[in-house]
Design brief:
Elements (H helix, E strand, L loop, with lengths): L2 H13 L14 H30 L1 H6 L1 H5 L2 E4 L5 E5 L26 H11 L14 H7 L6 H8 L15 H22 L1 H9 L12 H10 L8 H10 L14 H24 L5 H8 L8 E6 L6 E7 L14 H10 L7 E6 L3 H12 L12 E8 L5 E6 L3 H5 L5 H4 L2 E2 L5 H9 L8 E4 L2 E3 L2 E3 L9 E4 H7 L2 H8 L3 H10 L18 E2 L1 H9 L6 E3 L4 E6 L4 E2 L6 E3 L3 H16 L12 H5 L7 E6 L5 E7 L3 E8 L9 H5 L2 H5 L19 E4 L2 E4 L14
Parallel strand pairs: 1-5
Antiparallel strand pairs: 1-2, 3-4, 5-15, 6-7, 6-20, 8-13, 9-12, 10-11, 14-17, 15-16, 18-19, 19-20, 21-22
Helix pairs in contact: 2-8, 5-11, 5-12, 6-8, 7-8, 7-9, 8-9, 11-12, 12-13, 18-23, 19-23
GO molecular function: carboxypeptidase activity; penicillin binding; peptidoglycan glycosyltransferase activity
Subcellular location: Membrane
Organism: Deinococcus soli (ex Cha et al. 2016)
Length: about 700
């Protein structure tokens, strides 16, 4: 391009009139800066709203917020006599990705909570709660930047319920984007919650779902006040209320162990004391309590149940000198805690949405449950359990299969997981508890209790069979004696020609084959949970009918209307003559001098008190001694106990199986109240030398086992 051409072009450009849309940058003024800031806030608000709407839609929170009150109300649980057993949360229902563990919570109205607690909670957590619509714009930026707190009571309620497990709360995920997204979602949903329920109802829902996670897996003001101070929420004092509210930022600090160093425990309690005083100061600064009320509360030496604190001084000079765990503290979960997942599962199997349920009546007997829990989760009948040794026990009613008691040794949150509820999930080799089932099968095939077999060298598939004693009697023994002595040789002789039928029967009972065990099925290689074993033994006292074990007796919706449940699933397993003969076989194992469980015979006191009803039992121990069992039956109840390593890696301590620890546990059956003290003798049964056998010429036949 030539110089002359450039000159002409530039001259033409300079003569072109200036466009009103093309201007040079103007200098910043205060007015212009304010307008830009307002525009930026508007864009940020629109972006926050968009992010919040997206978060609400992606988590399904909109629908759950609309039904939040129903979702937070737990299911009230009663035992068969109407006594309360606790409550069941809806924490996982309808939200598969929710990672929040279920916790007990009993809802109480605001009138059931002390005014001191409500004042302390609102003043410290959200002092402007009654003047905003769920979002406090003055606190929101700090909450977003810090990622801490719910900024308002309403937003905290959302964080602890419908949004828990989705973003950065109650998950292993962290990051500023997750925090901002959660806050934005709370920002969108909080006004909706306030409009839907009103502030008073929001406050009630909030105090009933506060996450005191560290305090025995409890939540809500009712459980916290009971667990921490042993009082009703209506009776909380100002000092106690300030202490509880002060725990909310970090409730896990409340927990202390026996081995916590003294200086660490003392420092932790001093922190809780400082938080209590902070809460009291906030109340005083807002004029919600007088100086006199502050001084009295601050001078009160608070003593939580878990702790043993030493104070010095008095009045304003009251200070913590030392603190440690209270050695006498005990706070076991409610009985239903360990069964909540099983109840929910059974509701779904019955076609009932747990969210519709307001109250359930279980087949559980509260007194029996308490007694069994004390045995299983305590020291048991023979002393404390070794590390790695678990125990599961189940008691069922022979008439209908209702579960009377169910307990597992892990307790607490572990046993609320169905995978840790050993009584219902520990699929372990059943060992010699299978023998009465084998003999029942044989009784329907021409064998009786008095049929004799030789106790001598026996083999199965090339494997030499030995007895637990390591010796043979080298003589003929009856089936009755063989069962009492638990002779493996006789069991294999009876079972080998009937192995196919035995497998079919066990599978119908819910037992599972162990493909890795090539020993005889007659020796208990199949696996089952104590609950299934108890249900199988119940058939011997129920005329040969086996009923599926279940927990639900009655179910009511939130309006108190009864919901229909399917009838108990019962099917004939044995001929009634066979069932009675096997029941007599089991009682003979207890009364026989050759048996291993003579300690189960009724004591003089039990005879005098009318508790000497018939009881039959059979013990069992696997070859590797990783499992020891006992199954028992009375005219009204059947019970099975398993003790062992759930992973099958270590042997049961010698004292447990030598002392027949599992069978000592079933002695509980004699302590249960019985309204059925004998099993009806069916037609076709006679006695020979005190032994029940079929009438001569009668050949009872068992029905075909039901399909598994």
């Amino acid at each position: 391009m030539t110089r002359q051409f450039k000159k002409s072009v530039l001259g033409w450009w300079n003569r072109w009139p200036r466009s009103p849309f093309v201007r040079r940058p103007e200098p910043w003024t205060l007015r212009r800066a304010l307008r830009a800031a307002a525009a930026g806030v508007g864009l940020l608000t629109l972006g926050l709203l968009g992010l919040g709407v997206a978060g609400a839609l992606s988590t399904g929170a909109l629908g759950r917020v609309w039904n939040l009150r129903s979702e937070l109300l737990p299911i009230e649980v009663q035992d068969r006599r109407g006594a309360p057993l606790g409550v069941i949360d809806h924490c996982r229902e309808g939200n598969a990705v929710n990672a929040v563990p279920c916790r007990e919570s009993l809802s109480v109205p605001l009138t059931g909570v002390s005014e001191a607690f409500l004042l302390a909670y609102v003043a410290k957590e959200d002092v402007r709660f009654f003047s905003h619509s769920g979002v406090d714009l003055g606190r929101l930026p700090r909450a977003v930047l810090s990622g801490a707190g719910g900024s308002t009571i309403t937003m905290q309620l959302l964080k602890n319920s419908v949004l828990a497990g989705h973003f950065d709360y109650d998950t292993d995920r962290r990051g500023p984007l997750l925090t901002v997204t959660r806050k934005a979602t709370e920002f969108v949903l909080a006004p909706l919650v306030t409009w839907r329920y009103g502030r008073r109802e929001v406050l009630a829902m909030s105090v009933n779902s506060l996450p005191w996670i560290g305090i025995g897996q409890r939540k809500g003001v009712y459980d916290a006040s009971r667990a921490v101070f042993g009082v009703e929420p209506a009776d909380l004092t100002l000092a106690q209320s300030a202490f509880l509210v002060g725990l909310l930022p970090a409730p896990g600090r409340y927990l202390v162990q026996e081995d916590t160093p003294p200086e660490t425990a003392t420092a932790r309690f001093r922190w809780m004391r400082a938080q209590q005083l902070v809460t009291l100061n906030i109340l005083r600064s807002h004029g919600l309590i007088s100086d006199g009320a502050y001084a009295q509360a601050a001078a009160t030496p608070v003593q939580p149940r878990l702790w043993r604190a030493e104070y010095a001084g008095s009045g304003a000079d009251l200070r913590v000198v030392a603190a440690a765990r209270n050695p006498e503290y005990a706070n076991e979960p409610e009985p239903v805690w360990a069964m909540q997942e099983l109840v929910r599962r059974e509701l779904r199997r019955a076609g009932v949405d747990p969210k519709r349920v307001g109250r359930v009546v279980l087949t559980i007997d509260g007194q029996a449950q308490a007694a069994l829990t004390q045995r299983v989760q305590g020291e048991g009948a023979t002393g404390p359990r070794a590390a790695g040794v678990a125990e599961g026990a189940a008691v069922v009613d022979v008439r209908g299969g209702g579960i009377v008691a169910l307990a597992s040794s892990t307790g607490g949150s572990l046993s609320s997981d169905p995978g840790r509820q050993w009584a219902a999930s520990a699929l372990r080799p059943v060992a010699s508890t299978v023998k009465p089932l084998l003999y029942s099968l044989a009784f329907g095939d021409g064998v009786t209790q008095l049929t004799a077999f030789r106790d001598g060298a026996t083999s199965y598939a090339g494997q030499a069979i030995r007895n637990n004693s390591g010796e043979f009697l080298n003589r003929a023994v009856t089936v009755r004696e063989a069962n009492a002595r638990s002779l493996n040789t006789v069991a294999v002789q009876v079972g080998t020609p009937r192995e196919k039928a035995l497998r079919r029967t066990l599978e119908a009972l819910g037992y599972r084959a162990d493909a890795g065990n090539t020993s005889s099925v007659s020796l208990g290689t199949y696996r089952a949970a104590p609950l299934d074993v108890a249900a199988a033994y119940a058939s011997f006292a129920n005329g040969g009918t086996r009923c599926e074990p279940h927990l639900l007796a009655e179910v009511y919706d939130r309006a108190g209307r009864p919901l229909s449940l399917p009838r108990p699933d019962c099917a004939p397993l044995w001929d009634e003559v066979v069932a009675y003969e096997t029941f007599d076989l089991l009682t003979g194992a207890v009364s026989s001098n050759a048996g291993h469980v003579k300690f189960l015979r009724p004591t003089t006191w039990q005879r005098l008190s009318g508790r000497a009803m018939p009881l039959g039992a059979k013990s069992g121990t696997t070859d590797d001694v990783n499992d020891t069992w006992c199954a028992a039956v009375t005219p009204q109840y059947a019970m099975a106990v398993w003790i062992g390593d759930p992973d099958g890696r270590q042997s049961v301590p010698v004292n447990l199986y030598r002392d027949q620890a599992a069978c000592r546990e079933v002695g509980l059956l004699r302590d249960l109240p019985h309204d059925r003290t004998s099993v009806p003798v069916p037609p076709g049964i006679t006695t020979v030398g005190g032994v029940a056998v079929p009438l001569p010429g009668l050949n009872p036949r068992n029905p075909t086992p039901p399909a598994p």
